[in-house]
Amino acid sequence: MKNQNILKKILIFIFGTSISLSELTFEVNWVPYVAYYISSLDISTGKSEVPIFSAVLDPGDDEYEVSIEFFIKIVSPALGVDDDLIILRTPSPFTVTDKIVISNLDLDANTNSLTNVSGNTVDLGELEFSSMEIGDMASMLSSILQSGQLPNGTYTFSMTVTPEGGDPLGEPQIISITDQDLLQIISPGGALADTTFNEVYTSYPLFQWSADACNVPGGCEYFIRVAEYRLDEHSSLEQAIEGVTILPLDQTLGFTSIGSEISTFQYPTNGGDLIPGKIYVWQIRKDLPTTSGTEQLLSDIVAFKVKDFSSSGSSGTSDMGDMSPTGMLLRTLIGDDLADRMFGDGGEVAGMFTNGNITLNGESVDISVIQSLVSSGIAVKDEYGYDSFRPMEVISVEVAN
């Protein structure tokens, strides 16, 4: 019985669906999470302490005899599990004469009735449970007890309402659960001792990182913070990043939000100035919605240096060409090598500068629009219908006087 109660919680993974037959409707709205922890449930009763879902069963003006069944198929290569599982079902049809609102907060192993919106009791009978094969059950429970959450795998959930004498209503939902351990900085930056090899040639660098994709609509939210490393004040990267930040400028924030499901971000024009010759540190935070609240995943802290072209031994800013915000944005788009060949000494357009006017598809836009595209990428739909973003790609470059 205890094992069955643990498995009962898996019904929380279905996202919002709406199904109908004549005037009978059944609508379910779910709160999406990246991780599902056992601590959010009383595993001895299945009682949940956090909102997981809310459903409305509405017969309209008619009366229906219905049965409810929850069906799950679990495919977990890590556990070697590929099995069918029925979590919960009513033993026989029950009568629905008025709208019933059902929440996971109302359901546990002792539930045998619900209350409709008119305040009348609806008898469900003693709920029936069934489970997977004993071997698969033991493997899954062992993983749950070790990690405190459901193991990685693909979960197919189907929640059906069957009117007596009719066909089941409901479409399956497929949820992929994966670890959220990866949050690795790509560029710019590295160890403090390597800043000579981690220089950027702009005060508006493009920050890049790699992370696991989130399984929630809209993805997980990312945050960034940037601070100056002061040789006379700081003895470590950690001490510098915990000091005064230049992004965000508001010291009460700690981090600034930069969007969801992105892997690049261009330093904004409204951030604190990145001064040539100075060393800076930065870090990314990823917020993960879970049944135990929002978890924060932090990247390593890395350092980079803004190139100072006025220092001794430098050939001067003329070698780099246009160093204005729009000029540096163009440099980011086409790359340093091409920019140096075009705008540097001896280049085809050496000595020319951008005029600050930017058009996108024939329409005039602010520089922040292009910075956002560079930062977030171009939105495309993935196989599950969620927005993902791919980096911009320069096909050709045309220069007009």
Give a quick set of tags describing it.
single chain; 401 residues; mainly beta; Immunoglobulin-like; 7-stranded mixed β-sheet; 5-stranded antiparallel β-sheet; 13% helix; elongated; disordered N terminus
Evaluate the radius of gyration.
28 Å
What characteristic shape results from the CA principal axes?
Answer: elongated
Beta-strand portion reads 35-45%
Largest sheet: 7 strands, mixed
Please identify which CATH superfamily of the largest domain we are dealing with: Immunoglobulins
Q: CA-to-CA gap between the ends? A: 78 Å
Describe this entry's structure for a reader.
The model is unreliable at 1-17 and 312-318 (pLDDT under 50). Helix content is 13%, strand content 36%. The chain has 401 residues and is mostly beta strands. The longest helix is centred in the middle third of the chain and has 14 residues, at 134-147. Helix 4 runs parallel beside helix 6. It has helices at 2-8, 134-147, 237-241, 325-334, 336-343, 367-376, and strands spanning 17-21, 24-30, 41-42, 47-48, 53-58, 64-76, 81-89, 94-96, 100-103, 113-115, 121-123, 153-163, 173-177, 183-187, 199-200, 206-211, 221-229, 245-247, 256-260, 264-266, 279-290, 293-298, 302-306, 358-360, 363-365, 378-381, 387-390. It folds into two domains: 2-177, no CATH class; 183-390, Sandwich (Immunoglobulin-like), CATH 2.60.40.
